Amino acid sequence: MSENDWPLAGKRVGILGRGGCGKSTLTALLAQGLAHRGHRVCVLDADSTNVGLFMALGLEKSPAPLIDHFGGMVFSGGRVTCPVDDPRPLRGARISLRDLPSQFFSQTPEGIIYLTVGKMGHRGAGGGCDGPLGKIARDFRLELDDEPLVTLIDFKAGFEDTARGIITGLDMALVVVDPTGPAVEMAVDMKTMVEQIRAGELPATDHLDNPELVEAARQSFHRARILSLSYVLNKVRNNEIEHYLRDRLSDWGITPLAVIREDPGISVSWLRGRPLVNRGAESEIASIIGGLEASASSPGAGAMPLRG
After folding, report:
1. Positions in the chain short of pLDDT 50
2. Burial, 274: exposed, middle or buried (Cβ in 10 Å; 0-12, 13-18, 19+)?
3. How far apart are CA 12 and CA 141, in angstroms?
4. Burial, 300: exposed, middle or buried (Cβ in 10 Å; 0-12, 13-18, 19+)?
5. Which end of the chain has fewer CB atoms at under 10 Å, N or C?
6. Is residue 2 included in any domain, yes or no?
């Protein structure tokens, strides 16, 4: 298999959006769709608060968190620092599956590899912020000996990880927009943020006294290689809502890759901890994959306008 045949091979795709928009649902359905098309898929659960993605993929239990593999959070005496305070790359973040201890990953029957950076819920009051988990999401690269992976990263809700510069480690970003005003606002904010990064705008560094850290922060933004920023409408009940969302986004030059209708069965699956089943969104998932593949295979994609 070559990247010419599989343009998404080796790419890291971040799934972003406001809380409740359906990021984890889209991550699971997209992972399944990619696997059915023959891709080797890795799902990195980078949501520090939401739980259950492993169940949505059909796994009985979650593997141990990667934060433990890398030595724990700095707030509890560990080695993993927050990317805002310490922008330097995470040591040992690129690792082969054969070298990663088995307790830190699981595989679904379709061969999807699942990992989690860790959750904040069990750390108790005063456990610190989740910045170190974001650094893992930014820097972690899982590799196979025989073929490249497509890595899907399910981020936590909201804009915080983006503001920390976590998206500088992505090849592609996919924003999920549900029928709410905040979701539309975040879609526009994401477009602005990525445009700024591609225009060479550097991160805030006034809080850093160490010149080495200042340079590390700047380099992380210089190295950003986001090929595309795409959008998906989710939980859309009817044509009226779809047209309204399209009109709102069109004002900002955004055209969604696909529209996924509201499915009560998916809510029931999440409630009961059951695997998600694609109940009619196959063509929409195929459209998303096709759009991502087109962006990945376009000549000079690194300099192309944002996909909207």
Report:
1. 1-4, 299-308
2. middle
3. 9
4. exposed
5. N
6. no
